């Protein structure tokens, strides 16, 4: 029997999405006591949405491992990098721009396995 060295729990819909009448995804994350990875689209509207999500998570006292901006092939690469820069100006955690090369996640995975 082998033990997992990495556990990923995926939430759906966002930090404040209800799971039950009294519980939301943020409540679940607090219960699990795991660092959060925020995944957001790398397109128009993501700066505000991502910063509000970061603010809510930090307000709830949950650590954020990183923000991943998911860049799809049809997304403008310059706009995606600009979004990353603008978010980084306001939040000083790790931000990863994930395009076609999943190897950009390797440093994050290596950090978690040590």
Descriptive report:
The chain is of the alpha/beta class and 114 residues long. The chain has a domain at 35-113. The chain has helices at 25-32, 46-59, 77-90, 106-113; strands at residues 18-20, 23-24, 36-41, 64-70, 95-98. Strand 4, helix 3 and strand 5 form a beta-alpha-beta unit. It is globular, with a radius of gyration of 15 Å. 15% of the residues are buried. The mean pLDDT is 87.
Summarize the SSE layout with pairings:
Blueprint: E1 18-20, E2 23-24, H1 25-32, E3 36-41, H2 46-59, E4 64-70, H3 77-90, E5 95-98, H4 106-113
Parallel strand pairs: 3-4, 4-5
Antiparallel strand pairs: 1-2
Helix pairs in contact: 2-3
Give the amount of beta strand, in percent.
15-25%
Major beta sheet, strand line-up: 3-4-5
Structural class: alpha/beta
* Average pLDDT metric: 87
Order of helices and strands: EEHEHEHEH
Helix content: 25-40%
**Sheet with the most strands, sense and barrel status:** 3 strands, parallel
Give me the oligomer status: single chain
Supply the number of helical segments: 4
Structure summary, number of beta strands: 5
Any idea what the radius of gyration is? 15 Å
Shape: globular
The residue ranges in which pLDDT falls below 50 over 5 or more consecutive positions are none
Question: What's the end-to-end separation, in Å?
Answer: 20 Å
């Amino acid at each position: 029997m082998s033990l997992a060295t990495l556990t990923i729990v995926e939430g759906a819909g966002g930090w404040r999405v209800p799971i039950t009448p009294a519980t939301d995804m943020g409540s679940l994350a607090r219960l699990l006591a795991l660092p959060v990875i925020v995944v957001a689209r790398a397109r128009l509207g993501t700066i505000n949405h991502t910063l509000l999500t970061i603010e809510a998570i930090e307000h709830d006292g949950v650590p954020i491992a990183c923000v991943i901006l998911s860049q799809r092939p049809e997304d403008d690469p310059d706009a995606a990098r600009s979004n990353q820069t603008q978010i980084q100006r306001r939040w000083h955690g790790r931000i990863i721009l994930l395009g076609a090369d999943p190897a950009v996640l390797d440093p994050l995975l290596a950090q978690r396995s040590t």
